[in-house]
């Protein structure tokens, strides 16, 4: 249901330009582990290209052909070698192992079923070298924010951006929360003064609550060794906006 959201990779990069803290964290994790790196849901390469430029043999697995093509273009432009692969993080077989596997920027939350999450973790487990680690981040669900997903279209001023071809782009979002599925079902509207709703794209994201994740990881053959609540590695607390996990094979 979210494929269209990622069909314009350049628009995605302008909508989500990224910040330095997550990039610094994952670069530090790659340096701490050393060796080879695999990113699942590698998108346009925003994190993996800098990691590869640090000297780590790097592979990116991505489901969207458009995002993968943009990542390849950016890596080539920078002269950085990355192996880019089209594939599904739920089930993949690359016939080798990695010292670090990471899943950044809530990419894991595109997997809506518990079975899909467990299959992903099992696939990761098979691809971890001895001493290897899985690192990922997802948001910490806020009951208040979920309750505000009432199906009303609202302007998100903080998401507005400038497109060099279109000018100022405004973003509206309309969301409902399916409590039984733990999935927020949204529609994103991109508009300019001259072209209202020039892109309308669905986006669905699962919520994973803190008590669920250790069990899902365990079913996938992994165990939690560290859990943080922000990019500075502060301890996870109930009011943390982020769940940041470091896992090893069980």
UniProtKB/TrEMBL annotation:
Keywords for this protein: Methyltransferase, Transferase
Q: Pfam families from the entry?
A: Methyltransf_25
Q: Which GO terms describe its molecular function?
A: methyltransferase activity
Q: Which CDD domains match?
A: AdoMet_MTases (cd02440)
**Methyltransferase domain location, by residue?**
37-132
Which Gene3D superfamilies did the record assign? Vaccinia Virus protein VP39
**Which GO BP terms apply?**
methylation
PANTHER family named among the record's database cross-references:
TRANS-ACONITATE 2-METHYLTRANSFERASE, TRANS-ACONITATE 2-METHYLTRANSFERASE-RELATED
The protein depicted here goes by the name SAM-dependent methyltransferase
Question: What organism does this protein naturally occur in?
Answer: Cellulomonas oligotrophica
């Amino acid at each position: 249901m979210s494929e269209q959201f990622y069909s314009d990779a350049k628009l995605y990069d302008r909508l989500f330009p990224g910040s330095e803290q997550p990039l610094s964290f994952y670069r530090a994790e790659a340096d701490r582990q050393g060796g080879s790196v695999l990113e699942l849901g590698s998108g346009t390469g925003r994190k993996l290209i800098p990691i590869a430029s640090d000297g780590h043999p790097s592979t990116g697995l991505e489901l969207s052909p458009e995002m993968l093509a943009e990542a390849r273009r950016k890596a080539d432009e920078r002269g950085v070698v990355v192996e880019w692969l089209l594939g599904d993080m739920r089930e993949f077989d690359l016939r080798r192992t990695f010292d670090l596997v990471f899943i950044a920027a809530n990419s894991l939350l595109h997997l809506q079923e518990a079975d899909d999450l467990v299959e992903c973790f099992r696939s990761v487990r098979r691809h971890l070298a001895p001493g290897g680690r899985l690192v990922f981040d997802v948001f910490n669900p806020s009951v208040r924010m979920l309750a505000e997903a009432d199906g009303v279209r609202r302007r998100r001023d903080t998401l507005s951006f400038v497109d060099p071809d279109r000018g100022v782009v405004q973003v509206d979002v309309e969301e409902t929360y399916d409590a039984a599925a733990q999935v927020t079902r949204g529609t994103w509207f991109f508009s300019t003064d001259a072209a209202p709703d020039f892109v309308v794209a669905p986006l669905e994201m699962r919520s994973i609550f803190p008590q669920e994740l250790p069990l899902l990881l365990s079913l996938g053959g992994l165990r939690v060794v560290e859990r943080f609540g922000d990019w500075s590695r502060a301890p996870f607390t109930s009011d943390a906006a982020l769940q940041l996990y470091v896992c090893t094979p069980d």
